[in-house]
Amino acid sequence: MQTNQELYNIALEKTVLASIIFEPECFEDVSIALNSDDFYLPAHQDIYTSILNLTNKNLPIDEEFIKKELLRVGRFDEQVMLDILSANPSSNIDAYIDEIVEKSSLRKLLDISIGFRKEILEENASSGEATTNLLQKIEAIENGNIKGFTSITLDTAIKEFEAMPNKPKYETGISLIDNFFNGGLELNQLIMLGGAKGAGKTAFSMQFIFNVSKGFKSAFLSFEMPTWKIASRAKKANLSNIQKNNISILDKGRDIREIEQTIKSLYKRGVKFFTIDSLMKITNRHHKGKRHEQIADITARLSKLCVEFEIIIILIVQVSNEDLKSGHMAVKGSGDADYDADIMFFIQKDKDNEHKRYFICEKNRQNGNEFKQEVYFNPKDISLQATRPALYEVEYTTSKNDDMSVSMGVI
Predict the structure, then answer these.
(1) How far is Cα 296 from Cα 338, in angstroms, rounded to an integer?
(2) Which one of 50, 166, 172, 329 counts the least CB within 10 Å of its CB?
(3) Where are the domains of the chain?
(4) What is d(CA 13, CA 80) in angstroms, rounded to the nearest whole number?
(5) pLDDT at 115
(6) Which pLDDT score, from 0 to 100, does residue 402 have?
């Protein structure tokens, strides 16, 4: 017979809730492991549910907002809230979470055994039927349903895959991309774009955003240049009113937590395509590790957003001088960030021709096609194109003018 101490620990629950309130950034990791019903006290379940609701509404996790949310549903208990706020938060609550989950599992198993006894003794159910029900419930716990996950067999996964409709491809309007990717890009992908300074990374990313905005909402998160500079370039691009209204531009809020909230908010407004310029400008204030660990955390979070919301993010990254010379691309400052990319594009300058570029795809999870294509930088339109720019475009323009137009042409 289990004791109360084995079935729940109120102090642990207070510590976890206090840690979330005082350090809201930890909630994302906590929410993966815990459901509301893993807490023993109904009042603790209510508080945790209110935090979930606040997160879904993109509202702050703090005492006042939690109180307001609980009052809205008539579940606020002032004494319980005071008890939690007076508890000592912990900077490392993984062990606390594991114990709460373990005790929750024991309570669920106990409930199942009581239900089994009731079915046999009180409801005259057959032992075979009751046993089947019992095993199904135990299997649900073993499969991880108490954490919100359900495992399936490989055979079932294959059958589900075969029954799935083909993933739609979204034409980018950039022929080089659409051709090699058999019609366009699929969603759920983090695309990293690297190259030397002046190679055309920003020009390409703006081409991409401008082109897809003909049919889809898109966003340009620029931490390399202010919005007025983007507007000055876009003004001469002859964008339609639809395109102008489909593009959101931002140059503030460069911490990864702020970027996550921005992307979630824009996603709710229908944005599917994002460009972020650039990775090296993104901060990670809440991560206490070294910079390469912070970068790996940033790219992992962005990759997760792509999968969770079925979006495309083009992330401009910095490449080391050694990689620039070799033509190989790896994200500077991080050993693991490359693994988070679904696609990696690399724009390489030609050492003998200032306008020639090589557009390289050296990682492609969508269809496996990797390629190296000769393209040209057009200084008049500040764009990449398939053909060599005309003489007048080279002789009578300068690529250093911030007021240059941005091409709507395709590569």
Answers:
(1) 9
(2) 166
(3) 4-147, 175-395
(4) 12
(5) 64
(6) 36
Radius of gyration (C-alpha) of the chain in whole angstroms: 27
Topology of the domain covering 175-395 = Rossmann fold (3.40.50)
* Identity of the amino acid at 328: H
Of 328, 264, 346, 333, the closest CA to residue 298 belongs to: 333
Measured distance CA(130)–CA(142) in Å, rounded: 18
Task: Please give the full DSSP string across 259-294, using - where no structure is assigned.
Answer: HHHHHHHHHHTTEEEEEEE-GGG-B-TT--S-HHHH
Output the pLDDT for position 146.
43
Chain-centre distance of CA 313, in angstroms? 9
Q: Identify the pLDDT of residue 323.
A: 67
Half-sphere exposure of 229 (CA within 13 A, CB side): 14
Residues 6+ apart with CB under 8 A from 161: none
Given a cut of 60, is residue 145 above it in pLDDT? no
Task: Please answer whether residues 257 and 25 qualify as being in contact, where contact means their C-beta atoms are separated by less than 8 angstroms.
Answer: yes
Buried residues in 126-156 as b, exposed as e (16+ CB within 10 A): eeeebeeebeebeeeeeeeebbeeeeeeeee
What are φ and ψ of residue 258, in 5° steps?
-65, -40
Structure confidence at residue 52 (pLDDT): 92
Overall average pLDDT of the 207-220 stretch: 92
- pLDDT the model gives residue 20: 94
- For the stretch 358-389, pLDDT in tens is 899 989 999 999 999 998 877 666 677 777 76
Confidence band of 337 (pLDDT split at 50, 70, 90) = low
The two tokens of residue 20 are: 């979330």
Three-state DSSP at 170 gives: strand
pLDDT surpasses 90 at 274: yes
What is residue 87's DSSP assignment? S
Fill in the DSSP letter of residue 389: P
* Single-letter code of the amino acid located at 227: T
Token pair listed for 256 = 């990864």
User: CA 342, 197, 227, 297 torsion: positive or negative?
Assistant: positive
Cis peptide before 278 (omega within 30 of 0): yes
For domain 4-147, give the CATH number. Answer: 1.10.860.10
Residue 368 tokens read as 């496996």
CATH topology identical between 4-147 and 175-395: no
Chain centroid, CA 331 distance in Å: 18
Q: What's the length of the chain?
A: 411
Beta strands in 331-386 (DSSP E): 343-349, 356-364, 371-378, 383-385
Cβ 315 vs Cβ 192: under 8 Å:
yes
